Amino acid sequence: AGPPSTVRWERPKRFLSSQAFRVSVKAETASFGGPGAVHPAATKVSWTATASSGTASNGTLSSSAYVQLFVSPTNLKASDTGTVSVAWTLGSILAAGLRSGTHTLVIRWKFEAL
Q1: Residue 46 needs a FRET pair 20 to 30 A away by CA distance; which of 29, 74, 91, 93 works?
Q2: Other beta carbons less than 10 A from residue 32's beta carbon
Q3: Residue (of 22, 15, 28, 33) closest to 79 by Cα position
Q4: pLDDT for position 94
Q5: Which residues contact 4 (CB under 8 A, 6 or more apart)?
Q6: Dihedral (CA of 66, 6, 2, 105) sign
Q7: 25 pairs with which residues across the strands?
Q8: CB 1 within 8 A of CB 88
Q9: Per-residue tens of pLDDT for the chain, all 114 residues
Q10: Burial zone of 86 (CB within 10 Å; 0-12 exposed, 13-18 middle, 19+ buried)
Q11: What is the pLDDT of residue 3?
Q12: Cα separations (Å) of 7 from 17, 47, 74, 93?
């Protein structure tokens, strides 16, 4: 695991009192890209999330759907702020034919009012 990714949000505007701010993630592909013909699955990546306010969710990456990792409280005010820290983990990879080298995976972040 590397250093955590941190999302900081501050001074939200134009949210309705019933709306919250949500952060979700999705893998762009079903597996990592890299050398050789065998590649680790995106589902080998999981995370543990913590938030200064709101609700953080732990989870596992998917390439077929966004997975929520944070939702703020409703009724956000223009003075509100918060952070979400995400610690990423790569699970065990036991794959015959997996070559050493740099393997990459693009993760798409989604930020929305709901």
Answers
A1: 74
A2: 20
A3: 15
A4: 78
A5: 85, 86, 87, 88
A6: positive
A7: 67, 109
A8: yes
A9: 567 899 998 888 888 888 899 999 999 999 999 999 889 999 999 999 999 999 999 999 999 999 999 999 888 888 889 999 999 999 988 777 888 899 999 999 999 988
A10: buried
A11: 78
A12: 22, 14, 18, 28
**Residues counted in the chain:** 114
Question: What type of residue sits at position 111?
Answer: F
Q: Hunting for tokens 């077929």 — which residue is that?
A: 64
Residue 101 tokens read as: 């080298």
